[in-house]
Amino acid sequence: xxxxxxxxxxxxxxxxxxxxxxxxxxxxxxxxxxxxxxxxxxxxxxxxxxxxxxxxxxxxxxxxxxxxxxxxxxxxxxxxxxxxxxxxxxxxxxxxxxxxxxxxxxxxxxxxxxxxxxxxxxxxxxxxxxxxxxxxxxxxxxxxxxxxxxxxxxxxxxxxxxxxxxxxxxxxxxxxxxxxxxxxxxxxxxxxxxxxxxxxxxxxxxxxxxxxxxxxxxxxxxxxxxxxxxxxxxxxxxxxxxxxxxxxxxxxxxxxxxxxxxxxxxxxxxxxxxxxxxxxxxxxxxxxx
Amino acid sequence: xxxxxxxxxxxxxxxxxxxxxxxxxxxxxxxxxxxxxxxxxxxxxxxxxxxxxxxxxxxxxxxxxxxxxxxxxxxxxxxxxxxxxxxxxxxxxxxxxxxxxxxxxxxxxxxxxxxxxxxxxxxxxxxxxxxxxxxxxxxxxxxxxxxxxxxxxxxxxxxxxxxxxxxxxxxxxxxxxxxxxxxxxxxxxxxxxxxxxxxxxxxxxxxxxxxxxxxxxxxxxxxxxxxxxxxxxxxxxxxxxxxxxxxxxxxxxxxxxxxxxxxxxxxxxxxxxxxxxxxxxxxxxxx
Lengths: 289, 287
Hints:
The complex is a heterodimer. By secondary structure, chain A is α+β, with helices and mostly antiparallel strands.
């Protein structure tokens, strides 16, 4: 009888321990599943904020992580001043020029028009809509110091349209790898454009050369890639075709819209570092909130 | 040794080990399933796009994951509810109660309604559904759109087409589907979805409030609005906003645009908006 009772007690103990084990396993499993689910959601959301756009026939995409663009004022003060320039008044941060690059003396939109014998940014074409309204809007430009020299010849075309060398003011034009930021006061920009209109109109300036346009539903950024084709031209004294690649990121803060334009001129013999530097400039760009 | 193997303690230990292995496998399997389900749900959620018109206007909801369907799925749809056009590879909902019959025409005929001469891709098909009676809008040279006077070239064109101001023009709540053959577009230098988006938005007088164009996708949605001030409706001077949504879809051989236009101040029943939402959300491209 005693033996039977002790056996029953033992069985009950084992059953309770088993039950506790089962409950712990269930809790552990559920917690694991929850953590795993949350991690997946986080990863997917991170992934959707990371945009990568390659130029046609080019394996290497230019990437931007839109999640990291916005930065608080307190975090800005912790940035290394030996690596970045902080423009509090214009609300953005850019990398300091890297080796072989320089920041030009262009400080406003109107300054874009001052150079001669140089391929100017397509941003100048906005004047057909805004005339002089943007002239005092702040701008910063970083350029690779060695330009690619282009000479237009008889039979040269620009995006399929014939170029008449006799109509040009100069024999050769300098094309730069460059990074430009135009910080538009929203009160000025919104007179004519929403952020999306800036992006779409920048695209139309490229005459059918827009390859990619990305505007994710849960993001306020627009990212575009365009090509600009020059055929039958002389590039650094050699007859060649050349396709300029441009990317533009359109971003906003409460009081400003930003156009961040990158131009890559893929010329023979040019260091691959130029491309990496352009990516580094885009990686370092921040909008202060 | 053999005795040890037969002992109850060893048997219990083996059972415990087996249970643990099963638990671990179950846990791992559960975690994998949870992960896959979560991933699927997040991806499905990302495909659901909601685009609001500004100033408290309506919100269009489109599940972009359902835009493209197979021929088999298309064949299973009810032809009484859906207009199935396999030649042009699309499906749209048939007109609901209160809406006119679907009007099929060409781009040339569509432009001719506004006395505009078609210059290119004139033979491309257009399918339109309109809600009942239009709103008659009277405008003149002082009318503003989105805070700006109407550009002189447009005023001149309007005067050429409709005579001197004031102009009385009808405005409809409607859905318009355009199908553009890719080979026809290539002849005029349009090849990509971004090209189409830029072309269609270039001629819009509306304010573009939002664009959704996801990476590596074959669709885009644009929301734009036009607020007219200084117009007269039923003899009263009013401000009126026309909200539009434009869905772009790209198939192998064609681009499709579906545009819906709605005026919250039209005085039309809210059902009109629900119907428009249904038309655009039920549009399908057959692949």
